[in-house]
Amino acid sequence: MTRKTGEFRFRRVFTIVSPYLYILPGFFFLAFFTFYPIIFSGYSSLFSWLGAATGGKYVGLENYKYLFSDPNFAKSLLVTVRYVIITGVGSVGLGFLLAVLSGEAVKKRLRGQGFFNSGFFFPYLVPWAATAMIWLWLFHPLHGFVNALLGTDIDWVRSSNTALSAVIIGMIWKMTGYYFILFLAGIQQIPMDYYEAAEIDGIRRHQRLIHITIPLLTPTIFFVGLIAIVSTLEAVDLVYIMTQGGPARATNVLIYFIYERAFEYRFWGEAFAASTILLIALLVFVVIYFLLLERKVHYER
Amino acid sequence: MKDDRGQGSHCGRSKRVRRLLGVTKVLVLTLLAIVFLIPIIWMGLTSLKAPNEVFENPLGLLPRSFSFIENVKEVLTRAPFGHYYVNTVIITGGLAIIQLSLSIPAAYAFGCLQFKGRDVLFLIFLTRFLIVPAAVFLPNYLTVSRLHLVDTRLGVMLPYFASAMAVFLLRQAFRQIPRELIDAAKVDGASNLRFLWCIGVPLIKPAIFAFVIISLVYHWNEFFWPFLVGQTVHARTLSVGLGRLGLQSQSGAEWVLTMTASIIVSLPIMVAFVFFQRQFVRSFMRTGLK
Predict the structure, then answer these.
(1) Is residue B105 part of a domain?
(2) Which residue in B62, B143, B274, B282 is a FRET match for A29, CA 20 to 30 A apart?
(3) Is there a single domain that holds both residue B39 and residue B156?
(4) What is the C-alpha separation between B92 and B220, in angstroms, rounded?
């Protein structure tokens, strides 16, 4: 009897606890490699560091003070903002445009849609390092395709006026296809009836875009925009291979700045301070993302 | 289908106009797609040429010789790409397996079980969507180096073990399993774990495949974090090897070799895409939040 109630109690406790056991292994790694680093980064930014060695003494906000008085950091922030905004607007805008054009073709089952859908998406599958090499070669001052086509002799990557544009063009080329696919998925979910009804009512093509497609895609536009901002902010691969932050810091985006401070100058304290600033910005985007998610859920109800 | 409804009076003309518009649109889209593909075609054509050919007219696209095989041989003498292939397969394959085995139970709990704090915990898991390992590379590098895992394949993989994408995609699939099926299994005495393994996992196979494609592509292509950790041949992936080769040879102007190496690195994913276009596109479509 007692044994049976004991077993019963154990089972009850187990049914309450077991869901947590299912998520525990995943959560452990999430905590250890995503949340702990955020806290660790903030904590470490308050210390002076000797290279990557542990310890150093507590210096309060000294590292931040130093960063904010450093013109190179200001420059890096400016470059980052330009990099993120131009890449974001360019790739999301282009992805949206192509999806709207192609979306109707998909709905009407026009021929050739498979080809151009795959064509736009293809660059997204090219590895970052290969993307960097391809664009370095396309932008080659003497033998590159871009200069040959334009009839110019610009040294795209090694001139501080054009280096950031070169990186951004590479980014837009690679990322547009992914946003295109996300928008296409959104358009495909719009019920065909809406368009048919609009057509019967004699509503014109561009009005259909303004009154049906764009309003119904608004949540998707916000999401894709947010994803684009965040993933551009985090993408340093092209910068690393194409320009190494140069020339004259013209492409010194924030993650590259952090890398340089830590691994090249060995100023880990400042690197942690910059890393913390980046993470705070990212956490702001996380909050915006949650708010959007909640609103979208309401919206769909 | 639409044209036979109403609009009788100007039907004939507008039909023709519309068809013309449709054809123009397809033409424009096809042209744009070709523009998107030019850099990849340019990479392919360059890799076929003999090293000196590229310094002639850049718009003379077509190669005069077929030197691809020699180029590949030359690339293989510069860096051990064969070894990089092995590393990449182990890292990408291993990661997909680890991510799935951590995410399937979590996604099942989030999708099918009731417990306190479920939705909040799920949201917390989703933050990993936006904070990728590249953003926390600095503290993670210290962690990995304190665990003495720098320059190991495990070190490259560790920060990616928990995958928000996997949990998100699989949870969505689990949620679509009808409640009655879960209840019926319970009545028959199946435990959660048994249900998950025998009924749940087979039912969400399409979502699992979709995730595997996404994960393989992502990690095959990744550069920055694997580059930081894979410091010698020991743990380097293909992308890292290519990046390093590129950094070394930029001044040397060995474009034929770097383009050949780029082809070597990109080819597996590209070939897979050509054969499974539909599955690829659909998998990535799933990642848009619904």
Answers:
(1) yes
(2) B282
(3) no
(4) 6
Does A22 contact B139 at a Cβ distance shorter than 8 Å? no
CB-count burial class (<10 Å; 0-12, 13-18, 19+) for B82: exposed
Domain check: are B64 and B135 in the same one?
Answer: no
Task: Please check whether residue B6 lies inside any domain of the structure.
Answer: no
Checking if the pLDDT of B70 tops 90, the result is no
Mean pLDDT of B214-237: 93
A-chain CB neighbours of B145 within 8 Å are 52
Counted across chains A and B, CB pairs separated by less than 8 A come out at 305
pLDDT digits (tens, 9 = 90+) for B126-185: 899 889 898 999 999 999 999 999 999 999 999 999 999 999 999 999 999 888 888 888
Domain architecture of chain A: domains with CATH: 1-43 (no CATH), 62-300 (1.10.3720.10)
What's the domain count of chain B? 2
Closest CA relative to residue A278, chosen from A52, A53, A42: A42
Residue B268 forms part of a structural domain:
yes
The C-alpha of B231 sits at a distance from chain A's nearest C-alpha, in angstroms, of 13
The highest-confidence range among A46-50, A235-239, B57-61, by mean pLDDT, is: A235-239
Does residue B36 belong to any structural domain of this protein? yes
Rg (CA), chain A: 25
Would you say residue B95 has pLDDT above 80? yes
Q: Residue B56 carries which DSSP code?
A: S
Task: Give me the residues of A, 146-175, that contact B with CB < 8 A.
Answer: 147-149, 173
